[in-house]
């Protein structure tokens, strides 16, 4: 019998890639999303869609009562800057919303959840690559909400035998190569979506924040992980939960670092034209370098990223323009 998976936030950027992968891997998929940032068009054919909010406890309980075998929870507000200005929005959506999901799981005896966490839980890196034993000291409210949810998962594991896999994503980028998912963020805050708006003429120019970091070319280094590789990890995490009945917290990154300047140079090559940009001062809270040690994900899930070439990753975004 096919396992029935409830993907909460399944119409969003990462969620829609997860839905696609779960269907390919033979899961039955139910998507629950309020479409606040996602697109119904991006939900792969074969998934059943229910429009709903994680703050609506009644509807969540109703959906969770439909013989769900496991949950993938990707519904969250995710703009780091906004989380420092309007933390109350993040408290409500990310914290209250996630507790509503956990309560609905308990009410309906659903035991397994894959949670979309973030490298933002670590805060300023004390060493790189960062493994899961690295101290947890989020420096923004968004990162704090992700950690607080992980802590609740740990408690619910102890007290209610909810088993979870928390996946700490590094910098998620790219699109499915078959161009089946296209929805763009309305007001992107991340580097590659911003660069692509400049590449397509939607935006005049962009800034590289800081060229005086302690890195090869003075610009920040990040670990860019392709969304298809992230999606694969969710499918493997569900398999693992169903067979091992144990909880895990795992980094997802390539382990490779790419500087902002390298991203810009690689994009210019991929798109075949020069980009209009200038150097600006550092952005508050940006560490020099953030790369993942994802050995544990490879040991526990047998996961390995397929997209390790940054030009190939960028091509998958240009591909859908
Ligand atoms: N950057 C620029 N110009 C821009 C935008 C970004 O130079 O216009 C730089 C940033 O300073 C940073 C790099 O590009 O050095 C990447 O920045 P992003 O905003 O794309 O991503 P972050 O590394 O700041 O954060 C992302 C997610 C977080 C997550 C983190 C985990 O937004 O949610 O990755 O690694 F926690």
How would you describe this protein?
The protein has 321 residues and is of the alpha/beta class. The protein is 38% helix and 18% strand. The chain contains ten helices and 14 strands. Strand 5, helix 5 (141-160) and strand 6 form a beta-alpha-beta unit. The longest helix has 21 residues, at 87-107. The mean pLDDT is 97. Bound molecules: uridine-5'-diphosphate-4-deoxy-4-fluoro-alpha-D-galactose. Residues 78, 80, 118-120, 170-171, 189-191, 194, 206-209, 220, 222, 260, 283, 286, 290 line the site of uridine-5'-diphosphate-4-deoxy-4-fluoro-alpha-D-galactose.
Radius of gyration: 19 Å
Fraction in beta strands: 15-25%
Biggest sheet details: 7 strands, parallel
Strand arrangement, major sheet: 3-2-1-4-5-6-11
Contiguous low-pLDDT stretches (5 residues minimum) are: none
How far apart are the first and last residues' alpha carbons, in Å? Answer: 39 Å
- Ligand kinds: uridine-5'-diphosphate-4-deoxy-4-fluoro-alpha-D-galactose
Shape: globular
User: Residue-averaged pLDDT, rounded?
Assistant: 97
Instruction: Supply the helix-strand structural class.
Output: alpha/beta
**DSSP E strands, number:** 14
Binned, the helix content reads 25-40%
Helix-strand topology string: EHEEHEHHEHEEHEEEHEEHEEHH
- Continuous helix count: 10
């Amino acid at each position: 019998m096919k396992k029935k998976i409830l993907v909460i936030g399944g119409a969003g950027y990462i969620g829609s890639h997860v839905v696609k992968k779960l269907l390919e891997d033979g899961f039955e998929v139910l998507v629950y999303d309020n479409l606040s940032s996602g697109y119904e068009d991006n939900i792969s054919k074969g998934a059943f869609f229910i429009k709903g909010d994680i703050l609506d406890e009644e509807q969540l309980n109703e959906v969770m009562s439909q013989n769900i075998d496991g949950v993938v929870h990707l519904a969250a507000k995710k703009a780091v800057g906004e989380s420092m200005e309007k933390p109350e929005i993040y408290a409500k959506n990310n914290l209250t919303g996630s507790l509503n999901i956990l309560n609905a799981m308990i009410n309906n005896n659903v035991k397994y959840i894959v949670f979309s966490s973030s490298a933002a839980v670590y805060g300023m890196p004390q060493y790189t690559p960062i493994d899961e034993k690295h101290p947890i000291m989020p420096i923004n409210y968004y990162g704090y909400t992700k950690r607080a949810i992980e802590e609740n998962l740990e408690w619910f594991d102890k007290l209610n035998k909810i088993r979870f896999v928390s996946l700490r994503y590094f910098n998620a980028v790219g699109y499915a190569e078959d161009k089946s998912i296209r929805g763009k963020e309305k007001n992107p805050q991340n580097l590659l979506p911003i660069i692509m708006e400049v590449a397509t003429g939607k935006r005049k120019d962009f800034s590289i924040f800081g060229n005086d970091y302690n890195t090869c070319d003075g610009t920040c280094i990040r670990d860019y992980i392709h969304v298809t590789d992230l999606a694969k990890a969710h499918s493997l995490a569900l398999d693992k939960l169903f067979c091992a009945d144990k909880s895990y917290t795992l980094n997802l990154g390539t382990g490779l670092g790419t500087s902002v300047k390298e991203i810009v140079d690689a994009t210019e090559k991929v798109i075949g034209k020069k980009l209009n940009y200038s150097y600006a001062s550092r952005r508050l809270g940006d560490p020099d370098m953030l790369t993942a040690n994802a050995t544990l994900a490879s040991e526990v899930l047998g996961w390995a990223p397929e997209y390790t070439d940054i030009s190939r990753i960028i091509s998958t975004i240009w591909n859908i323009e």
